[in-house]
Design brief:
heterodimer, A: 346 residues, alpha/beta, 7-stranded mixed sheet, 5-stranded mixed sheet, 15 helices, 14 strands, globular, B: 323 residues, 6-stranded parallel sheet, two-stranded antiparallel ribbon, 12 helices, 8 strands
Chain lengths: 346, 323
Amino acid sequence: MTREMTYRDALAAATMDAMEADASVIVFGLDVDDHTRIFGSTAGLLERFGPARVFGTPLSEDAMTGVAIGAALSGLRPIHVHIRADFLLLGMNQIANMMAPLRYLSGGRLAVPLVIRAIIGRGWGQGAQHSKSMHGVFARLPGLKVVLPTTPQDAYGLLRTAIADPNPVLCFEHRWLYDVSGPVDPAIAVSLGTAAVRRAGSAATVVAASWMTVEALKAADVLARHGVELEVVDVRSASPLDMDTIADSVARTGHCVVADYDWTYGGLAAEVAAEVGHRCFGALKAPVERLGFAPVPCPTTRPLETLFYPSAVTIIRTVERMLALPAADLSDESFYSYESRFTGPF
Amino acid sequence: MPESPSLDVALMRYARLLLIRRAEERIRLEYPRDEMKTPVHLGIGAEAIAVGLCDAAPEGTSMFGTYRNHALYLARTGDLDGFFGELYGRVTGGARGKAGSMHLSSPAQGLLATSAVVGTTIPVAVGAALAHRYRGLTAPSVGCLGDGAIEEGVFWESLNFACLKQLPVVFVCEDNGLAIHTTAAARQGFTSVTAAVSAFRCLVSDASGVDVHQVATIAAQAFAHVATMQRPAFLRFRWHRALGHVGIHEDYADGYRDAPSEAERQASDPLALCEAGLRARGVTAETLVEYDAGVTARIDAAVDRARSAPLPGADDLTTDVWA
């Protein structure tokens, strides 16, 4: 039955439903059981399932990542939660040296069914160590799946599918998406490795990841008023990457802007651009453009932070240049609405 | 001193020590052919730890090891074909050659994973213990580590979490006093690892790892303690690494450590010690020679089978990535 709910509630509902359905699902991580419950995304779980299935951990991300692997090898389906993706990096040895290759190293005799949830921070001074995503770094490791839900429906559906998947799955959740509200039908299965066309258009394709999907849809709204219809493809899954949906779109529009929520160098944007260049070579009417973070660490102060992130404005101007259109007058448009609303501190 | 095991048990342990020793000695002979293309970290001198530990481990124990894992693999499985098949990179290896020496495992027999990055399997063993507890299984988990791993943060993180949750995990520190070529004194800002670990809520033991029967006794006591008290254990077993860190050669001539005297060499040799014990109990030299001949014949056959087994084909490259 479809219900209206926020992204945060959808995450909690997906976890709740998965734990109801499967007693092998457990949840742990710093603060998953404190009074704030990871911005509400683990709300209700401790009360419903108790501390054997829902527990906070020591500040030991490295070991707890290994604990998740060991538990997954031994019949459980752990969900390890990080309130910032930056903290996930403390577990990188376990992720890159064990979690990803372990099935291969075992000759297919082991499976590692676990989920790591990581929240991408932004704004109000999160700075260089509370703002990273780096999903492209993880997506390039064979053996790992990586998803980036952008809607409440996908937060629910992708997390349910990730928990049920026999492989390790990393789920990157943008902090600003937590307040987004939308319909959620638990019966809708969202498979890993499928992109979603969020808006149909013929002028250019914007391939967006995570929060950039919100920015791309905003850009599409604005440009539509100027007679330019963008097609917005939400990547949803960085690994497996649904290049068929992306390439189909670009083959129709002939133009492609990749708007990633990460640095562009060697990341998802680079991968998509390379694949589009290869698959759509004959259809492209202009070079593929990549948008992402400025190639600097994330600054703390707001004016520099605004310059650091790509935005709807960046997308609009990029599309205009690509299509040789005059720059639209944006003076009546409202941008950065979330930056103005988000008051932190976290 | 440990209680004397029955003669049958003593002979069984001897046979296992012998199997491991002869298998690794065979690797030293085979390696120069350059057919066995995998970095080997031989455990000559450490065999008693693996044999005693595996002998004492309750049914259903999950085990995790290091890259110096040949003894653990053979003690746990006795599977020479899987062993040599994997070392030769053949399809008869447990992982069809994708693992090699540093990642030997046999999940069906409870050796779940080994790792080439120091300390990496320690928390994984703790996670297995967590799952065993959660699922109501009585068997514990075992995480083997070298003394170098003590300096990895993940060891202390894992120990802390295991002791916090009082999980059924046994940490086994196979301490040879060397991390590659660096002595403990040059690496450690503490005087006693067991004293440091004693500050945690777990059983702590410190013993020589040369006498297989003593190792088995200590391990059995630890497993009993873990089962009845529902808390972790940390067992340190000291041993002498007879060869270099990696490869097949002795390295005393390299100058970073002193060569042992012949008496010290004998005293640090688990096989010689076990053999002397059997002789003292009246087992004849002829009997031991028969054991040796039998083991050697099995190894000869296993090596022949491995060398003639197929190498994996192109199809194997992309399998086993995804479940």
